[in-house]
Specification:
alpha/beta, Aminopeptidase, nine-stranded mixed beta sheet, 9 helices, 9 strands, 13% strand
């Protein structure tokens, strides 16, 4: 998550996948939750997150050798799982950063002749803040929660769609660089997409989902009242998956992650999903944000619970998610 200087005082206190997909049972759209038989493998979630947040990647600061290793890892993952590059290669060079830096961008074409012209963006940022300048025993900001956890979720969702081919709309899979430098990766990409007349339906950006909240809902959404996305996600899952977090509105988190770049450019439903609630994780932008503190069972359940929602967002015959007035 982009550094929140004014929040630091609060924070510092503070099995193999089944390749079957949606049930073939007939159902009237919007009448009941989407049924998913695909199972997310906890071991795969763990292995992916463990490497992406490892010391070997040296905190994944944009423009460093560490994030280059992360980029190669993500490229290999997309290729292995048959997610094609959106551009000529998976690498989308940032136009607003002094040294070479790349978003990693893949695409899963929709299976409907008309709806495939519309896009759903699934995204997370894979950069973090690198190595501490002052010498300490632990100098690497591993960024396991921020945002290797979100990248893991998006990667697993992309694998699901690539295997099941259950999306009528096309899906743009984006791992952003430069988020911690001021949303640079998303700002750079949206300018290119606008020039292509990119037909965006909605964006789900995943931020910091490594530990659960002690609330009666699974996650919160930024900009809760800007669209009906929260209500539709809950309708699609048949659970109280998304709730309203007052702190999110108070701190205006809608404007502080890569969803905002897309909203600003397209004025479509573009929002971030998170389980970091300012009470459940005290190591924001800290070397102790490490793999060992992540709740892998929670992350696996989070991804599993969201599959019905992302499936319906990618496949509803109408654009059911809309901006509020």
């Amino acid at each position: 998550m982009k550094k929140l200087y004014f929040l630091l005082p609060f924070i510092l206190l503070g099995c193999k996948s089944n390749t079957s997909s949606v049930s073939d049972k007939p159902s009237k759209e919007n009448s009941k939750p989407v049924e998913i038989t695909y199972k997310v493998a906890q071991t795969e979630v763990s292995d992916f997150l463990k490497y992406l947040s490892s010391d070997e990647l040296e905190g994944r600061e944009t423009g460093t050798k560490g994030i280059e290793k992360a980029a190669e890892f993500l490229e290999d993952f997309l290729k292995k799982n048959n997610v094609k590059p959106y551009f000529k290669t998976y690498r989308d060079t940032l136009t607003n950063f002094k040294s070479p830096a790349f978003n990693i961008v893949g695409v899963i074409e929709g299976n409907d002749p008309e709806l495939k012209k519309e896009f759903v963006v699934l995204s997370a940022h894979y950069d973090h803040i690198g190595v501490e300048k002052n010498k300490k025993e632990d100098v690497i900001n591993n960024g396991a929660n921020d945002d290797a956890s979100g990248v893991t979720a998006v990667a697993e969702m992309s694998k699901y769609f690539a295997q099941t081919k259950s999306n009528k709309r096309s899906i743009l899979v984006v791992f952003f660089a430069g988020e911690e430098k001021g949303l640079l990766g998303s700002k750079s990409l949206v300018q290119k997409l606008k020039k292509q007349n990119f037909n965006l339906y909605a964006q789900l950006n995943i931020e910091m989902i490594g530990v659960p909240m002690k609330r009666d809902y699974l996650a919160y959404i930024t900009g809760f009242d800007k669209s009906n996305m929260a209500d539709k996600i809950n309708e699609y899952t048949g659970k109280k998956t998304i709730g309203f977090l007052p702190k999110e509105a108070e701190y205006k988190l809608f404007y502080r992650s890569d969803n905002y770049s897309f909203y600003e450019a397209f004025k479509k439903p573009c929002q971030s999903i998170s389980t970091f609630d300012f009470e459940n994780f005290e190591f924001y932008h800290h070397p102790s944000d490490e793999f060992k503190l992540m709740d892998i069972s929670h992350m696996t359940s989070f991804i599993q619970e969201f599959l019905p929602a992302v499936t319906q967002i990618a496949s509803s015959n109408e654009q059911e998610i809309t901006m509020n007035n």
